[in-house]
Amino acid sequence: MKKLAVVLAVLTVAGCTTTDPYSGEQRTSKTAKGAAIGAVGGAVVGAATASRGDRNKGILTGAIAGGAIGGGIGNYMDRQEAELRQKLQGSGVSVSREGDNIRLNMPGNVTFGVDRHEVRPEFYQTLESVAVVLKEYNQTNVRVVGYTDNTGSDSHNQTLSERRAASVGQLLTSHGVAAGRVWTSGYGKRYPIASNDTEQGRQANRRVEIELVPVGN
Fold first, then answer.
1. Residue 72 confidence (pLDDT)
2. C-alpha angle with apex 184: 179 to 185, nearest 5 degrees?
3. I need a surface site. Which of 26, 32, 94, 149 has the fewest CB within 10 A?
4. φ, ψ of residue 120 in degrees (nearest 5)
5. What is the mean pLDDT of the chain?
6. 66, 45 Cβ separation under 8 angstroms
7. Looking at the domain that runs over 93-214, which CATH code has it been given?
């Protein structure tokens, strides 16, 4: 019966929904998902490590502990995501969520000039806003990755993507984000998110993405 109670509790948590303040849609909160996943993992570990007579107790204890850890990370990233969405409204930067990771997509047309790696001065304030949030939520690592379209040589695009990522990373650290948290790289024309057969698609592929990952992941 206790096993069944744990399973039902996990399903209840996983079913918790919240209203997205930006889209108005109902969605399962990342905190609830994290708690559910943690509870399942904790229950498995508790069952495996407890003695035969205490197995039910081990399952229950493990589920509670795992749920607390998973929910804590999810809640931390939930709050960080909400602040970023608020500060980046109208900036042209999109915010998306993949599990406990947060991704910021910075289109090249608002971030850089054509074939340039220097950040546009009018974009400084946007990156400063990102830095403010990153300093507050300092338990996340920052991965900055540059991409290009397929115009030009592979070597040129690779170098350009690396320099663009480095420019964004340097501005973040100049606004107080610890350098040890920031990792930059470039992938040139690899991993397009749209077709390079149209100007609109090429424009979408010219971008820098910032991925925020909980420390330890």
1. 84
2. 165
3. 26
4. -60, 135
5. 80
6. yes
7. 3.30.1330.60
Q: Indicate the length of the chain as a whole number.
A: 217
Q: Strand, helix or coil at 193?
A: coil
13: pLDDT strictly greater than 90 = no
- Residue 182 backbone dihedrals phi, psi, to 5 degrees: -105, 125
The predicted model gives 50-61 an average pLDDT of 52
**Phi then psi dihedrals of residue 178, to 5 deg:** -60, 130
**The pLDDT of residue 12 is above 60:** no
Amino acid at 140: T
Instruction: At 70, list the tokens.
Output: 């998973």
Residues of the chain by 3-state class (helix, strand, coil), percent to 5: 55, 20, 25
Residue 166, CA atoms < 13 Å, CB-side half-sphere:
9
What pLDDT digit, counting tens, does each position of 25-51 carry? Answer: 445 555 555 444 444 444 444 445 545
pLDDT of residue 80 exceeding 60, the answer is yes
Burial class (CB in 10 A: 0-12, 13-18, 19+), 216: exposed
Q: Copy the structure tokens of residue 186.
A: 């470039």
Beta-carbon contacts of 155 under 8 Å, excluding residues fewer than 6 positions away, are: none
